[in-house]
Amino acid sequence: MDLDVFVTTHRIEWDRLDHLLRRGRSLTGDEADELVALYQRTATHLSLIQSSAPDPMLVARLTQLVARARSTVTGTRRASWRDAAGFLTAGFPAAVYRSRHWWIPTAVLSTLLAAVIGWWIGTHPEVQASIAAPEDLRALTRPGGEYETYYSSHPAASFAAQVWTNNAQAAAMCLVLGAFLCIPVIWILFVNVLNLAVGIGLMSSAGRLDTFLGLVLPHGLLELTAVFVAAGTGLRLGWTVIDPGPHTRRSALAQQGRAAIGMAIGLALVLFVSGVIEGFVTPSGLPTWARITIGILAELAFLAYVYVLGGRAARAGDTGDLAPEERSAELPTAA
Fold this sequence. Notes:
The protein is mostly helical. It has helices at about 5-25, 30-50, 55-75, 80-100, 100-125, 125-130, 135-140, 145-150, 155-175, 185-205, 210-240, 250-280, 290-315. α4 (about 80-100) packs across α13 (about 290-315).
């Protein structure tokens, strides 16, 4: 492509589009039709320039022009309560459901790894000695020790808020940092698994594994599921960078990234529920069986939410991404 000839040929159309956009709402019917036609032609011009002769200055100008025209043609809309309801009943559960092939293996492998490391720590005194001094280990694991008082060491409301904030940050980091070839996600996941394994190993070595599980399971089932969903989605996002499939890497990453941002919001709500359970149920005076039952019911409710509502929405074509009219325009590319 001879860029100078191309610019000379189409500059009048671009200037005309810019002029019509500046006119705003004072356009006549014929001028509005002309604006739509010029928007479509300019979008095609931008695609051709990007694929054949990507001049940075010209690409920047036409990109801005196309974006302004698209906003004028499609209009803008405000989010409503209907959008929020649609996100909670379809978009978010559909995104979780569609990523199940990533987060379920992540959950299974992480749980197995935690069990193996916990067994290793619990059956090897020399490993326990490398973690802390014997008197410190006794302070952690004895009846009324730090593992037990941890959940009642602060007022329930502030403790729940702190737990929710920390877990939501960890989930968001998994989702956002997944684009860096999965490595940060694997590290965050390993740290969480290791912390769980240390608790399992030390409390089992003290013969108090049942007490530990009675404290962890009420909130831990839902909390860990949310972390696994975030980690699995982050790994999926990272793999998209490596293998974008039939789409361009930019397009595939944008689609997965938008869905991941939505999932960060949804998982924050899930972690809020687990934080409430950890702050109010785990340290409560309820029998262990009652506390664990509440945790199991919360976990089953989330799984039903994902597989019933999410599965239905996914089969209907919902991906958890923005609606087509709300996405950035995807221009055609040269073959």
